[in-house]
Design a protein that fits this description.
The protein is α+β, with helices and mostly antiparallel strands and about 400 residues long. It contains 13 helices and 9 strands. It folds into 3 domains: about 110 residues, Butyryl-Coa Dehydrogenase, subunit A, domain 1 (Orthogonal Bundle); about 120 residues, Butyryl-CoA Dehydrogenase, subunit A, domain 2, CATH 2.40.110.10; about 150 residues, Butyryl-CoA Dehydrogenase, subunit A, domain 3, CATH 1.20.140.10.
Length: about 400
């Protein structure tokens, strides 16, 4: 079992540099353009696929890191380049996480590579949970999955919203309710294969930030999929439902099992934004002169930068700890995964705001990237569990009380 260490090994360092170089040379120069266009940056995804950065093999190797640190390192560097483009590259990984968390090894082998395609034919994956009336409250999902035993077919109906790559993805992983009376314990995850009739794209949302990442609705209208597309299989689902009906505890829920695995990496993305803003503000403060000296020599500015650096590093420590605990099967007894996402997300918002303040009017205009980073940062206090939900998870974990 890997011991926790703050020293990255040689392989990890090489991959970190490789991803950082891609973020610096390919993503950053294009970030403003794709933010303005509010479109999926297909040329950058294709470039990433050609060099091997956008591929199932790359992500699988990152997930297989015994220390669990490679995924947060990759997420941080990509978000340092640009959060919107990073999510365009990483959105498929969330679908893979859904397959990994709930599916069989055979299903992972079959469907995960199809979430990426190949350098010659790039594909996308999407993980579909949220609905108009069920965001943080995943127990209220209305999307239904009904089983037809005679044909071994599942029929899905409903509308998913706020979905990264939603409607434009090739592979959609959909969380649906199979027994409404059981709430979240009556849900299951399904793979909807490419080109399945009944699945269509709904509204595309125009957003405050992360504009290069497609966010939209997914409409499921009598969407029929084979029984083999139920992640984990029918026997496992029947056993889980039987335990729930008897009032026995369940080890996991379809949506929450995925979020538990991905929250530290989402925190790492927020960390990447915060680090980018801190570094930019630091260099600006060294070069910008006022009253005859660099503004970094003013205590008011220097102390802001000191606090920014402290919170960035503290965020990384929380993210790395949670990622290591997940990889080494440590028990999340105090909500460590939620701590990492909560603190890093709120740090990103705060640090980017301080960067704007340090730069004054220059920080507020699009000539400089800090205003975009501030817009991008806000979503990290909202998606994959709002800050309020993270606090609820942590409070329940440390108190043992079902706080509502």
């Amino acid at each position: 079992m890997s011991e926790f260490s703050l020293d990255l090994n040689e392989d990890q360092l090489q991959i970190q540099k490789w991803v950082h170089d891609f973020a610096e040379s390919v993503m950053r120069p294009a970030a403003h353009e794709w933010d303005e266009r509010e479109e999926t940056p297909w040329p950058i995804i294709e470039e990433a696929a050609k060099v091997g950065l956008y591929s199932f093999e790359f992500i699988a190797n990152a997930f297989a890191d015994p220390a669990g640190l490679l995924m947060p390192v990759i997420n941080e560097e990509l978000a340092w380049g640009d959060a919107g483009i990073a999510l365009a590259l990483l959105g498929s990984t969330l679908a893979v996480a859904g397959i990994f968390a709930n599916g069989t090894p055979e299903q992972l082998v079959e469907w995960a590579p199809q979430c990426y395609g190949s350098p010659d034919k790039v594909q996308l994956g999407a993980f579909c949970v949220s609905e108009a009336d069920a965001g943080s409250d995943v127990s209220s999902l209305r999307t239904r999955a009904v089983y037809e035993e005679s044909t071994d077919t599942w029929v899905l109906n409903g509308t998913k919203t706020w979905i990264t790559n939603g409607g434009i993805a090739d592979v959609h992983v959909v969380v649906a309710t199979v027994d409404p009376q059981l709430g979240a314990r009556g849900q299951a995850s399904f793979v909807v294969p490419p080109g399945t009739p009944g699945l269509s794209a709904g509204q595309k949302f125009k957003k405050m930030g992360i504009r290069a990442s497609h966010t939209g609705e997914v409409i499921l209208d009598d969407c029929r999929i084979p029984g083999s597309c139920l992640l984990g299989g029918k026997e496992k689902l029947d056993e889980k439902l039987a335990r729930a009906r008897e009032g026995k505890r369940s080890s996991s829920q379809a949506a929450l099992a995925t979020f538990e695995a991905t929250r530290p990496s989402v925190g790492a993305q927020a960390l990447g934004i915060a680090r980018a803003a801190y570094e930019y503000a630091l260099e600006y403060a060294k070069e910008r002169r006022a009253f005859g000296r660099p503004i970094v020599e003013n205590q008011g500015i220097a102390f802001k930068l000191a606090d920014m650096k402290t919170r960035v590093d503290a965020s990384r420590l929380l993210v790395w700890r949670a990622s290591w605990m997940g990889a080494t099967k440590r028990h999340f007894g105090s909500g460590e995964g939620s701590m990492s996402k909560l603190y890093a997300g709120e740090t990103a918002v705060w640090v980017t705001e301080q960067a704007i303040q340090i730069m004054g009017g220059y920080g507020y205009v699009r000539e400089h990237p800090v205003e975009r980073w501030h817009r991008d940062s806000k979503i990290y206090t909202i998606f994959e569990g709002t800050s309020e939900i993270q606090r609820l998870v942590i409070a329940r974990a440390i108190s043992g009380v079902h706080i509502i």
